[in-house]
Amino acid sequence: MSLRLRLTLWYSGILALTMLLFGVVLYFFLNYFLYDQIRQDVKREASNSSLRVQKSIALSQKGLVVDLELESRDFYSTNTFLQLYNIALKSFNRSANLQYYDVTLPLTAENINKLQDQSGFFVKTKVLGQDFLIYHQGIRSDDGTRLIGVLQAAVPVGSYERTAVTLRYTLIIWAILTIIVAASLGWFLARKALKPIERVIDAANQIDSSDDLEKRIAYEGPQDEIGRLTNTINGMLSRIQKGYDELDEAYRAQRRFVSDASHELRTPLTTIRGNVDLLEKMWKQTSGSSMLATPDQVQMSLEAMQDIAGEAQRMSRLVNDLLALARADAGVTMEKQPVEMLPLVQEVVRRAQLLEHRAEWRVGDLTALDDVYVHGNRDYLQQLLFIFIENAFKYTPEGTVTIDARRRDSFIGLRISDTGIGMDREDIPHIFDRFYRADLSRGVTTGTGLGLSIAKWIIDEHDGSVEVTTRKDEGSTFLIWLPANFPLSV
Questions:
Q1: Residues 6+ apart with CB under 8 A from 484
Q2: What are the DSSP calls for 370-383, one per residue?
Q3: pLDDT for 64-96, tens place per residue?
Q4: Contacting residues for 368 by C-beta, under 8 A, at least 6 apart
Q5: Whose CA is closest to 436, among 462, 454, 417, 415?
Q6: Digit-coded pLDDT (tens) for 430-462
Q7: What is the helix (H) or strand (E) element at residue 197, kind and residue range?
C-alpha cells in the first residue's frame, strides 16, 4: 500500500468518524429538543385539563360512585386530543375533536397499573396508521389515596417523524458525499505533496542505474519538510561523491604506489641477479681449470660485489622509507616533547658536511634559533632537515647549498636553499607525492622519490607548513615553518 493511499485512507477515516459523531449528535440534539417541546405542550394541556375536570358524586342503587367528565370545550381548532377514562364505571369521556373522528385512544391495564406508582408518563403508538404521542396522567380521589381515572392527552407526531427521517437520510447522504469529495481532494493533495518525494526516488534510481554521483535533486518549493529532506539528500550525495572521489583517488594512488615501488625494487634486484650470475659463470670457469683467478677476474668480482652492496643499500633505504610511510598511513603518532632547536640544527649542520656533495655547503644566520623550543620529536626533526639537505645536494651539481633560520609571529622558519637545477612550476604541486621526481631529474640523479613524502608527513605531524620557491636552472628554496615557543625577551 502506497503512502499516498495510506494518507488518503487515514484522512477519509478521520473525516468519516468526525461526520458520524457530528451527525449523531446533531440528530439526537434536534430530535430531543423537538420532542421535548411537544412533550411540554402536551403535558401542560393535560395538566390544565385535569384541573378543570368536574367532579360530581351521584348516589345510585349500585352504590356511591364518582362521576368524571371533561369540561365542555371546542377542540376542533387544536391538534391536542383528550380522553378521560373512569376506572369505576369503565367509561370514556372524549374531547369533541376526538369524538368527531370517532377514535378511542388505546389504554392498557399495564398503563393503568403504572399510574399507581407515578403521576404520568409518555407513550408513542400508532392510531389508525398515524404516529401519536400520548401522555397518561392519573386522576385521584380527594384524599389522593386511590386512582379513580386516567386522563390521556395525545398529539399526532407523524410530521415530526417524517422530518426526523428526512434529517437522518440527509445527514447520511451529506456525509457520504462529503467523504467522497474529501477523499478525492485528499488523494489529489497527497499526490501533489508527495510529488517531490517521487522526484527524489526517480533521481536516486537514476543515480543508482548510471552511477553518476554528480546528479542532484531539483527542488524549487518551500523549505518545508520535503525541502529540508531534499537538501539533506543533496548534501548526502555531495559527501558521498566527495568520499567516492577520495577513495577513487586513493585507489589510483595505491596502484601507482605499487607500480612505482615494484619498479624501484625491480631495478636493484635485476642488478644483483645479473652480478650474481656473472660471478657464478666466472668462478665456474676458474674452478674448471687449474689456473688461478686473473687480476681482471678479481677486479670484476670486486666491482660486482660493490654493485651488489650498493643495490642492497639502496633497497634497504627504500624499505625503510616504505616502512615510515606505512606507519604514517596507519596513523602512528610520534612521541613529542620540547626540543631546543639551536643544538639540533647545529648537529645537523655538522653531520651534513659528511654527506656526499659537490656543491659548497654554507651555514647562514641561525641566531633566530636562540632559546627557541619546538614541541616535537627530535629524531624526526633531524630526519626532516637531512631529507631537504640531501635533496639539495643531489640536485645541485655545482653552486651552493645554504641553511639559515628566521622568525615570524609564533613560528620558527628553517630555510634550505640551493642554486641547482630547479624545477618547472608545473612540478611543484606534485613534488610531495610518493615516487614523484621532476622529469628533468629522471635519469640524471638517483633516488626513490619518497624523501619529500616523508618530510611532508613529519611537517604535518608537527602542525607546520612548507613554502617552495623554485625556478628552472636557478635553484630551489624550501622554507619550513614550525610552531615554536620563544623566550619572553623576544
A1: 341, 372, 373, 374, 410, 411, 412
A2: TT-EEEE-HHHHHH
A3: 444 455 555 444 446 788 888 888 888 888 887
A4: 405, 406, 407, 412, 413
A5: 454
A6: 787 766 655 444 444 555 567 788 888 889 989
A7: helix 195-210
